[in-house]
Amino acid sequence: MAQPRNNFSLFGLDLRQLWEHWRQGCAEARRWPLFRRLLPAEPVCLLHPDGRESDWPARAGGAKATPRTLAVLLPEAQVLRQRLQLPLLPAAQQAAALALAVRAASPFPPEAIAWGCQVEARGGGLQADIAIASRAHIAAWLAQLFEDAPGESGSAAEHPVRKRLPGQGVEVWADGAPFIPLTGYDEARRHTRERRAHLHTAALSGLALVLLLALAASPALHRQQQAAEAKARLATLGREAAAAMSARDALGKTNLQLQTVAAYLAARPDPLQVLARLTALLPDPVHLTRLEIRGHTVIVAGLADNAAGLMDTLGGQPDFHDVRAPSAITRDRATGRESFVIEFKLAEDAR
Length: 351
What we know:
By secondary structure, the chain is of the alpha+beta class. Helices cover 43% and strands 24% of the residues. Among the domains are: 12-58 and 67-147 and 160-187, no CATH class; 271-346, Gyrase A, domain 2 (2-Layer Sandwich). It is built from eight helices and 15 strands. This is General secretion pathway protein L.
């Protein structure tokens, strides 16, 4: 037979029990020393069977508080105690187990039972101390305590707290170790006040923690804000400097081109100077039809009356060398003059 599918099961954990597990964990955490100091129990004035009074929980250094609740301690002879070892259970299952144990151990009818318990975590489970008493015995003890005691000489003045009547802030606890409050005797008011005080303390502690976290995080947030502002300023400066950077790049390219041109011109003679030098050296009848400069090599062609003498003139210059005629000198039929082509090289320092 197929087992019914549980839609609330996740890795073997029943999700419907999460709240119970959370409450159980919080209840266990409240028993830790740190949380006991942070979330103390409301002080209670204990009235012992022998008539003396004490404060619960005990105040360090003898400090006195003004309890709002009076708890009457039943004599141990009127209380039936039992100690149980239970596994870790949710609150509902734990309450059912304790109620079943009380019914099994009580010699009184269910409607005549007053009981309470103290549960503590021990090892991997729970230790429950149960106290059981008869409501009739409790009523008789309270009547004896509150009706007979004030008749004693000076007791009302010495113990004003005994003026309270049952039902007006009076609880009933089982005497012994530990003290166990019995349910149904005004303990709900104290528990309500304790929960309200604990919630108030938890809220203030949470607020203090949030403020401390904010205080600790403020320097980092301030640094982050400064970094964001610096990044925004850098982006603005980058946009503003884009035009200047473009102009700088264009100027760099122009300078490079000028340097290239200057290097090119520096490696070659100046054509104007060469032309001026030839103009000064060549006789007036010489007619040039061609002037070509290839680096330091100069080629001139034209017509002259004495081309050989012209070569001698050019070859006699100290800055001209390797003067030669790449082709033969011929006579032009139209003019009767000699046609020549002369090639020579300029000295390296000639411009």
